[in-house]
Write a structure and sequence with these properties.
mainly alpha, transmembrane, transmembrane helix, membrane
Length: 83
């Protein structure tokens, strides 16, 4: 099944998509916190090494995730006065 473009979605589907994005943002924040905790524990346990760099890389990827879809969704919600 192909995913529809955001502009083709109905009002109800747009609101559901916004809800999913908000949930994904919260999950990403929790995951980033968890990974930061792993890095802090690793540093305090004096085991700075390759396994400490993996969570740092994952944090970098999560923080720099493209936000284009979220901006487009917010613009559509504002155009349709749904928020």
């Amino acid at each position: 099944m192909k995913q529809k473009e955001l502009s083709e979605l109905t009002d109800q589907e747009l609101l559901q998509e916004a809800k999913k994005m908000k949930t994904n943002t919260i999950i990403d924040a929790v995951f980033i916190g968890f990974l930061a905790g792993i890095v802090c524990f690793s540093v305090f346990a004096n085991s700075w090494g390759f396994l400490t760099l993996i969570p740092l890389f994952l944090i970098y990827k999560l923080v720099n995730k493209p936000k284009d879809k979220q901006k487009e969704l917010n613009n559509l919600l504002n155009e349709r006065n749904l928020k």
